[in-house]
Amino acid sequence: MLGICRGRRKFLAASLSLLCIPAITWIYLFAGSFEDGKPVSLSPLESQAHSPRYTASSQRDRESLEVRVREVEEENRSLRRQLSLAQGQVPVHRRGNHSKTYSMEEGTGDSENLRAGIVAGNSSECGQQPAVEKCETIHVAIVCAGYNASRDVVTLVKSVLFHRRNPLHFHLIADSIAEQILATLFQTWMVPAVRVDFYNADELKSEVSWIPNKHYSGIYGLMKLVLTKTLPANLERVIVLDTDITFATDIAELWAVFHKFKGQQVLGLVENQSDWYLGNLWKNHRPWPALGRGYNTGVILLLLDKLRKMKWEQMWRLTAERELMGMLSTSLADQDIFNAVIKQNPFLVYQLPCFWNVQLSDHTRSEQCYRDVSDLKVIHWNSPKKLRVKNKHVEFFRNLYLTFLEYDGNLLRRELFGCPSETDVNSENLQKQLSELDEDDLCYEFRRERFTVHRTHLYFLHYEFEPATDNTDVTLVAQLSMDRLQMLEAICKHWEGPISLALYLSDAEAQQFLRYAQGSEVLMSRHNVGYHIVYKEGQFYPVNLLRNVAMKHISTPYMFLSDIDFLPMYGLYEYLRKSVIQLDLANTKKAMIVPAFETLRYRLSFPKSKAELLSMLDMGTLFTFRYHVWTKGHAPTNFAKWRTATMPYRVEWEADFEPYVVVRRDCSEYDRRFVGFGWNKVAHIMELDAQEYEFTVLPNAYMIHMPHAPSFDITKFRSNKQYRICLKTLKEEFQQDMSRRYGFAALKYLTAENNS
C-alpha cells in the first residue's frame, strides 16, 4: 500500500511539473513581451513594421527567449516520456479489488485524459483505465475485389496478425471471386481469435454505380462510402483499410484513438501528403474541393453509430450530386467525396498523426511523418507504381513489406492467452481426430498428415474461362512443387484447354513463382490456368491433397488427371472432347485411358503423330512408361494392342494399375492417407474399379514423361525402411476400408495383392 502511494505521489508530481512548467514559461514570455506597458510582437519583421523602437539588442533578447521556449518544449517531451513509462507501471484495479490486464503499448492510451484525471484527483484508483482492453475485439473493414486484390490483402492481414494482441473481426466487402479465395484461405488458415464476415460487393454496386469514377480501383473504390449501410447495425466503430497497407505496429494502438474523438468528430483521417488537392500539380489541374491538403482515405476510423444518426448516407449523396455537376467524375474515387463532405463540415474530422498513414506515392511529404524507424505505424503504397515508387527511404519500406509478403503465415496461428475463443467446429473435430492417434505409433507422422489442414490460396493469378456450351470441355489437372516449375510453359504449349494446378510452396516460394509467372509471356498470355497455392507444412509431400484441391476447382464437366512431368500430345485437348461424345461419358461410368510413354533424353523432338511415336519406340528413343522399373503400373494398358488399334478398347483392372485417365468431374477424390511416394494413384484407380468404372484405352492419344532428378520422397522411400513399412501398413488399412465400403466386390483387391 505504501509503495502504491509513493508511486502515486511521483506520478502526481510528474503531472504537475508537466502542466506547470509550460504555464510558468509562457507567463515569463508574456511579461517579457511588454515594453512600457505595451505588448511587443515576438516576430522581428512585425516589430520592425510597427515599432520605431526596434533595435538589434531587443531582437537578440527575443531570439534568446525563442531558444528558451524550444528548450522548455524539449523538457516537456522528456517529461511526457517519463509519464508514459509511469503509466505503464501502474496496475489498474477495478471495484471489488479485481485486477484486469490491458494493452499498454505506446500510443494506445489516452494520456491527455489520464493526466487530467490525475490532476483533478478524480477517483481513488491510481490511474484511468487504458483505452483498449486485453480481449476487446477490434473490427476492421476492407473492400476487396478480384484476383490481384485478394493476393495483396494477405500481406496486409499478415502484418496485422504479426503485431496484434487482441481478437480481430474482419469485415470483408468482396466480390464473388475475392469471397471464394479469401473464405477458403481463412478457413484453412485457422488463426485463433479471428473472425471473418463477408458482404456481397456486387449487391452494393447499385448504391455507387451512378458516380463516374476515373480511378484505377473502379466501382469498388467507392464502396467505403456505404459502410454505414452495409455493416451490421449494432457495430459502433470500425477501422477501414485499403488493401495496399502494411502495419508496423499493433492495430490496437490505432483502435485506441477512437477514445480521443470529441464532440461531433466521427471520421479519423490522416492529412493527404501530396499536393493533389492544392491544385498546383499541373496547368489547369482542378481537384475536388478539400480542406487544405485534404485527407487520405487509405486509413479511416469510422464512428458508425454517430454517422448513422447524422444521416451520413444523405450527407455524402447530396454533396456528390452537387459537385458532380461541375466536376463530372471523381479522380480519386471515395476520397474525393469524403473530402468534399469534410470541406463543408470540418467538425466531422479528428486528424490522425501522419505516421498512421505514411503515403508512399511520388512527390509526397511522407518523410516528415517520421524521424526514426520506431516512428512508423502504417505504410500506404498508394501509388499505381506500388513498390517502384520514388522515395528516399523506399528500400527500407520495400524490405519491410517483403518481410510480411514472404513471412510464413503458419507461424501466425498463435493463441491469444487469456482470451476466450469462439467455438470452431472444424477446429474441435480436428483436435478430436488428432487426439485419437497414438503418438508412440512408428507411423504416427504418416497418419497425422491425413488430418493436417494446409493453408490454401485459390486462384493465385487471374483466371478467366467459360466452358464450351456443348458440355465437352476437359480440364488438365496436375500438382507440382518448386522444382517442377520449368514444366509449366511446355505444358501450356501442348495443351490449349483449361488447366487446374495445385502448387505446394512456402510463402517465399509463392512469391518466386509469382515473379516467374509474371515474367513469362507464355504464362501471362494464358488466362485459363488456375494456380492454387497449398502452403507447405509438415515433412511429407501431400500429393493426394494437392490433386484433390486441383480437382475441386475446375469449371468443366470432365477432367484429365495427369502429372506435371508429362507432356500431352499436340491436339490432345480437342481429341479428348471428341472422345467424350464418342464414348458417351456423360451417361456412362467410363475412365478414358491416355497411354503413357517416357524418354530418357532431356532434349526430345516431340512426335507429332502416333506413327512418329511408334517409329521412335522402335528406335529406342521412347519407351512405354516405367517398363524397366514398374511394369505392373501400366502393363494392363496393353501397348501391343494399342500399336495397331484404331478404335477405343476396354481393359480390365489389375493389381498396381495406375493409368492416367479422363473422367467426369464428380469422380471420387484421392485418398489423403497416401503421401509422398507410393500407392497414391494406385489406390484411386482401385476405388474407381470398385465403383464399376469401365477402363477404355484411347487408340490415338498419348503422353510422354520428361526426365528429371529423383524427387526427395522417392529417395526417402528407397533409403528408409520404416517409410516402406508404414506404406505397407497404410495399404493394408486402405484395403480393409475398401472391404467395409464395397463389401464382397472388394475381396478381389485383397486376393490380387496377395498374388502379386
TrEMBL record:
Pfam families: Glyco_transf_49, Glyco_transf_8. One of its GO terms (cellular component) is neuromuscular junction. Keywords: Glycoprotein, Glycosyltransferase, Golgi apparatus, Membrane, Multifunctional enzyme, Signal-anchor, Transferase, Transmembrane, Transmembrane helix. Signal peptide: none annotated. One of its GO terms (biological process) is neuromuscular synaptic transmission. The chain crosses the membrane at residues 12-31. Pathway: Protein modification; protein glycosylation. In the C-terminal section; belongs to the glycosyltransferase 49 family. In the N-terminal section; belongs to the glycosyltransferase 8 family. This is Glycosyltransferase-like protein LARGE1. The gene is Large1.
